[in-house]
Amino acid sequence: MAKLRVLVLVGVLGAVLFTASPALAEPVRPVAASVTAAHVAVAPVPAQTQPPGPVLDPAQTDKANTEKTKNKLVAGLIAVVLLGIVIWGRRVRSKKAKGS
């Protein structure tokens, strides 16, 4: 039973650490869709230029990713501590029940 507890703790901690890495995430790339019209005569539309999108500062993006990673690690650590408290409490309760 003790091995199972250790495996659960290691699994939870490993999952938290591996999911908290923003460096492994890939950016989302838009997919270009093509539409074909069959047997329809359409007058050519002049090309319109779109205003450029928001400009992202890499320094701010890295800072935001760092803060997000830190928050995830803190939340994971709290989850592991709470899980340890629950396991410890059940252990104490089971020993008390066996002793009675």
Question: How would you describe what is shown here?
Answer:
- Residues 46-67 are annotated as: Disordered.
- Residues 1-25 form the signal peptide.
- The chain crosses the membrane at residues 73-89.
- This is LPXTG cell wall anchor domain-containing protein.
- This protein is mostly helical and 100 residues long.
- It has a domain at 61-100.
- The protein is 60% helix and 0% strand.
- It contains two helices and no strands.
- It is elongated.
- The two termini are 22 Å apart.
- The relative contact order is 0.14.
What share of residues is helical?
A: 55-70%
User: What share of the residues does DSSP label as strand, in percent?
Assistant: under 5%
Largest sheet: none
Give unreliable regions as ranges: none
Q: What structural class do the secondary elements suggest?
A: mainly alpha
Tally of helical segments: 2
What does the radius of gyration come to?
27 Å
Signal peptide: 1-25
Region (Disordered): 46-67
Keywords: Membrane, Signal, Transmembrane, Transmembrane helix
Transmembrane segments: 73-89
Task: Summarize it.
This protein is an all-alpha fold and 100 residues long. The chain has helices spanning 2-19, 58-99.
Topology (SSEs and partners):
Blueprint: H1 2-19, H2 58-99
Helix pairs in contact: 1-2
What are its keywords?
LPXTG cell wall anchor domain-containing protein, 100 residues, elongated, mainly alpha, 2 helices, signal
